Amino acid sequence: MDKYKVGMRVEIVGHSDGFWNSYYGAKVLRVDRTKLRVRYEELIDDDEGEYIVEDVDLKHIRPYPPESFDINYRLAIEDDVDVYDRDGWWRGEVVFDEFDDELMVYFPYVVGDDSETFSTFPYDDIRIHQEFKQVGKGFAWSHVKI
Question: For residue 43, what pLDDT is reported?
Answer without folding.
Answer: 93
